[in-house]
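Q: Please design a sequence for this.
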């Protein structure tokens, strides 16, 4: 099967939004963006051996490659609309591609996102997705506008994906029932798109949690010219992580494990009362884990009134 047959069979006939004038098939896509909106654009590459193991279920890879991009749009408060997909494959295996597309398009259709273009090449397995979203003028959530005194929140739960990864790396054995629950977190992260909408006009800053709360909140603090403190007793640790790990270890996974793809956001005291209503229709829990503070140092950890020491504080950094 040649490149064009492959595109035709797997990618060209997916559902198309009405604002896509020309999708796959011409030199480039043609789109009518809505008036009075800004475009929000993000891209992410997943490489075999770096971001996932060779035996990852193809449907999971399809889901995750799109989900991590939608998560970045969610962190901006944006509505996802159009994506491109560049896929490099060692060989064109039909069954593999069918499952990959099933994972990819199931999520795309859920959020009414159209695949408008891409590229297929032969080589070591790697997936690059570029996602485009829109947001009403001046309403985007950013990293740089948190203020000292703002409260720090996260959606959902933390640490579940990282514990599944530990199992996959052979570092901790989990029973098959528990693994099934946690692999769902690791392979099928759910981008918090609806939470992102709800936070427009309420949160002062927002980021999605890919590298772990400690590092990602550090990015917000640095961009905003302040610091932050986290109350480790308030962390929404995934229930299975609490059960399978010692307390300090569970806290470390929640802070540094990464790949939770939850949102971390800051809310000024005056907006705190609006938060429950703002997030109610997203159906996702949220909880306060700390506060922005003055200073320039790394994010501080506290356990009640005591400073808390965590032995392996780090976030994910490809070049460190
Ligand atoms: Mg991000």
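A: Design:
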């Amino acid at each position: 099967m040649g490149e064009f047959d492959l595109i035709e069979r797997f990618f060209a006939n997916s559902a198309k939004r009405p604002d896509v004038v020309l999708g796959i098939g011409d030199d480039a896509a043609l789109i009518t963006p809505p008036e009075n909106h800004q475009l929000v654009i993000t891209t992410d590459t997943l490489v075999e051996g770096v971001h996932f193991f060779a035996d990852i279920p193809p449907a999971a890879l399809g889901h995750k490659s799109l989900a991590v991009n939608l998560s970045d749009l969610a962190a901006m408060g944006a509505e996802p609309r159009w994506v491109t997909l560049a896929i490099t494959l060692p060989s064109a295996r039909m069954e593999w591609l069918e499952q990959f597309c099933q994972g990819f398009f199931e999520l795309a259709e859920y959020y009414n996102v159209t695949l408008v273009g891409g590229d297929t090449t032969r080589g070591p397995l790697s997936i690059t997705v570029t996602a485009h979203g829109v947001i009403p003028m001046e309403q985007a959530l950013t990293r740089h506008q948190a203020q000292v005194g703002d409260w720090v929140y996260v959606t959902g739960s933390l640490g579940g994906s990282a514990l599944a990864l530990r199992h996959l790396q052979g570092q901790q054995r989990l029973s098959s029932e528990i693994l099934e629950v946690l692999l769902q977190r690791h392979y099928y992260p759910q981008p918090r798109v609806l939470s992102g909408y709800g936070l427009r006009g309420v949160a002062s800053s927002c980021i999605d949690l890919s590298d772990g709360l400690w590092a990602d909140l550090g990015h917000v603090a640095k961009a905003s010219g302040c610091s932050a403190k986290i109350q480790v007793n308030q962390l929404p640790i995934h229930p299975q992580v609490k059960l399978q790990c010692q307390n300090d270890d569970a806290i470390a996974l929640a802070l540094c494990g990464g790949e939770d793809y939850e949102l971390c956001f800051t809310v000024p005291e005056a907006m705190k009362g609006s938060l429950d209503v703002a997030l109610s229709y997203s159906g996702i829990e949220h909880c306060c884990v700390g506060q922005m503070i003055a200073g320039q140092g790394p994010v501080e950890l506290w356990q009640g009134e005591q400073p808390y020491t965590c032995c392996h504080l780090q976030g994910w950094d490809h070049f460190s």
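Q: Thanks. Anything notable?
A: The CA atoms of residues 127 and 260 lie 20 Å apart. The chain has a mean pLDDT of 94.
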